Amino acid sequence: MKVTVKYFGMIAELAGKTEELLEVPSGTSAIELKDRQVRRYQIQDPESVQLAVNQNLDNKVELNEGDEVAFLPPFAGG
Amino acid sequence: MRYDRQIKLDEVGVPGQEKLRNASVLIVGVGGLGCPAAQNLVGAGIGRLGLIDHDRVSLSNLHRQLLFTEEDLGKSKALVAKSRLQQINSEVEIDVFEEPLSIDNAENLFQLYDIIIDGTDNFETKYLINDACILTEKPWVYASIYKNEGQLSVFNYQEGPSYRCLFPKTTRQNISCEATGVLGVTPGILGTMQAAEVLKMILGAGNVLSGKLKLINILSGQDQLLNISKRVEEIEKIKNEGIIPVRIECKISDESKLYLDIREIFEQPRVNSGKVLQIPLSELEDRLEEIPKQEEVLVFCQSGKRSKKVVDLLKAQFEFNNLINVEGGVETIIDG
């Protein structure tokens, strides 16, 4: 199945893009997708990165075809 | 009359203007976010505004902190901001606190105001604001910037989620606008939106960004609105245990050398490894005997300027010939 992944902050820089369409095995959970992308892009401090699935901040869901997953790092500039 | 253009709006009217006049707001940090937030609230006729900032105006502030002018360089941000804001609106009562927000003063200060605005640039203070707002039952308006992106939300509003519900775990990568670079308009937009959230809360108008995280990208023009779930355990933990200090720490690259950190305790990143004596410049005079004279000591601060003065002075007046200044400051001696 395909899911759309969006990257924010320094994660977008590590990925070299702000968005991509990924093919993942059906039944993949949000946390499994996160682990995979953390390894792929060598994302630092992964436990601080929050996921939003279909605009809801929640890491604990199983993904479905067409879902949109946002990767949000904390940042603090001001 | 002064407020005619906003009183014309159904959301304001004469009763709304009276609500604004009876309201009080504390702005923590009078920088890129705090300046536009303060200007807008003072213009709108907020009754009382508190400004807390221990920093002084520097040249690299001027492109985005538009309350300050070239004449203000080296002066207290909070004091300069007050005098400029009083020129905009002398009816507003403005309190100034020229000190850092700390675990010791946060709750007492927050008690004095209805709403808190986060104009800070570091995780430690954002978690401190969060915890103190939970304990004093005050809502706060959060904003953060990374380069051309911004995050905006209202926390602890009418039993809504807190910052710890959004980010229960923080990161060591505390990257400021000074380090990454930022267009002046970005904090200008975010700080103005913070003021808008304050006005909405006071007037009871529109949808306050509670339980929502607004993401703004200045370059792409694409904004997002995400839903934040409440994590009750994160809020209860603070109610039960009080403020939980968050410290962003880093490791020293060469752990064989002896260092002297003369920065004040609120300056980040904190160094938590290797051999590092921590004696803030403000206490140095009384603690000179703690500095060894027999072995080489590398002295550092944030940029290398204060530490150079310290090294020169201690050599000239107290015969510390073993001191070496770390040119370039803390960033040059830590990992990452």
Notable features of this structure?
heterodimer; A: 78 residues; alpha+beta; Ubiquitin-like (UB roll); 5-stranded mixed sheet; 2 helices; 5 strands; B: 336 residues; alpha/beta; Oxidized Rhodanese, domain 1; 2 domains; 8-stranded mixed sheet; 4-stranded parallel sheet; 14 strands
If you had to describe this structure to a student in words, what would you say it looks like?
The complex is a heterodimer of chains A (78) and B (336). Chain A has helices spanning 9-15, 30-41; strands at residues 2-7, 19-23, 50-53, 56-57, 68-72. Chain A has 78 residues and is α+β, with helices and mostly antiparallel strands. Chain A has one domain (2-72): Ubiquitin-like (UB roll), CATH 3.10.20.30. In chain A, strands 2-1-5-3-4 form a five-stranded mixed β-sheet. The longest helix of chain A has 12 residues, at 30-41. Chain A is globular and about 40 Å long. The relative contact order of chain A is 0.31. The model of chain A has no long low-confidence stretch (mean pLDDT 94). With 336 residues, chain B is α/β, with parallel strands linked by helices. Chain B folds into two domains: 4-241, NAD(P)-binding Rossmann-like Domain (Rossmann fold, 3-Layer(aba) Sandwich); 249-332, Rhodanese-like domain (Oxidized Rhodanese, domain 1), CATH 3.40.250. Helix content of chain B is 33%, strand content 18%. Chain B contains twelve helices and 14 strands. Chain B has helices at 4-7, 13-21, 34-44, 77-88, 106-111, 123-136, 163-166, 177-180, 185-203, 232-241, 281-284, 305-318; strands at 24-28, 48-52, 93-97, 115-118, 140-146, 149-155, 212-217, 224-227, 249-250, 258-261, 270-271, 275-278, 297-300, 323-325. In chain B, the strands form three sheets. Chain B has an eight-stranded mixed β-sheet, sandwiched between helices. Chain B has a four-stranded parallel β-sheet with strand order 12-10-13-14, covered by helices on one side. Chain B has a two-stranded parallel ribbon with strand order 9-11. In chain B, helix 3 (34-44) packs parallel to helix 4 and helix 3 (34-44) crosses helix 9 (185-203). The mean pLDDT of chain B is 93. Chain B: Belongs to the HesA/MoeB/ThiF family. Chain B: It comes from Christiangramia gaetbulicola. Chain B: It holds the Pfam family ThiF. Chain B: GO terms for molecular function: nucleotidyltransferase activity; sulfotransferase activity; thiosulfate-cyanide sulfurtransferase activity; ubiquitin-like modifier activating enzyme activity.
